[in-house]
Amino acid sequence: MRFQSVLDTLPIYEAGKPIELVVREYGISPDKVIKLASNENPFGVSPKVKEKVARSLDKMPLYPDDTYRELKNALSECYGVKPSNVIQGNGSDQIFDFATRSVLGHGDYVLQNGKTFSMYSIYSEQCGAKVVSTDSIEHDLNQLLDLYKRYRPKLIFICTPCNPIGDALKKNDVYSFLDQISDETLVVLDGAYMDFGRTRDRETDIPPAEIISKYPNVVYTGTFSKVHGLGGMRIGYGIASEEIIRAFYKLRPPFNVSQLSQLAAIEALKDKDFVDSYLKSNLEELSNYESLADSKGLPYFRSYANFITIRLEDAKLSSRELFETLLREGIILRNLKSYGLNAIRITVGRPDQNRILLNRLKALL
After folding, report:
1. By three-state DSSP, how is residue 269 classified?
2. Are 46 and 229 in contact (CB under 8 A)?
3. Where is the Aminotransferase class I/classII large domain (predicted)?
4. Which of 253, 271, 289 represents a domain boundary (last residue)?
């Protein structure tokens, strides 16, 4: 069978190792596996969300309300925007897909940071676009602007705080950059980790209502997979001008978010205590990993997210060796070799999980 030529070079996204794989390959009991690889909420999901879903199981045979009115109303109230400024997605990944397909054609340019979420380039290349990246690891807005002036891209991706590095841009720096970007260039601001960033430094907080009112070419994306613990429900959203939202809706398949996912998300937005408790724990536990890296003389990136990336060039083990050693013990981390880094990314877990991993890292590194 002959497929599109773009598929010849298109990579397949590599997700973090699932618990089920470790159980199968190493015979470790599921309750003994510690997964700190995919930046999920280690505390799970709000008990109120669990109760809501349990009470709603009889809705499973029914298609959801395809207007998603209740979900959009909840998000609009949360962020101070109109429901017409909101679109729901099967994860925020689907919003990235809408963004690329709405503006990109064969040979168009897309601009992104050198080390960033790999799905940006995958979605862009599916459209036949050419991805241009900075050569920096952390964000360099000056270099990004130079490349913008050179290539005049149709689309720019900015992830702040950034996955997989953890660095965050200050709001005023982002606005200064956007002031120099044409309204004809679509800009996707991925705010998946924004809640963690603002907890560490308020200057990194970028309110969706503010940025889309100042810059009508910006799409702010968010997810319920991180602070709300709904990674398995696959639900995200985009917030943008009505013009952009209308364009995205033309690309959206019907019923793109499940009935139970919508109900879970609405309930999750109500439980602010659950989110605040997690954010507080994350910041406290993150400092323990920073202290360990400092004690071992290992460089790391200051993180504004729920993970830390530690470089291992001067460590006893390479990222591959450390990853495989811990995997055999039932501890799943993320080896960043695929990003061209001899580094390991660690999701900040619960205190009990972190104690186990920190003790192993002290012994191994």
Report:
1. helix
2. yes
3. 32-361
4. 271
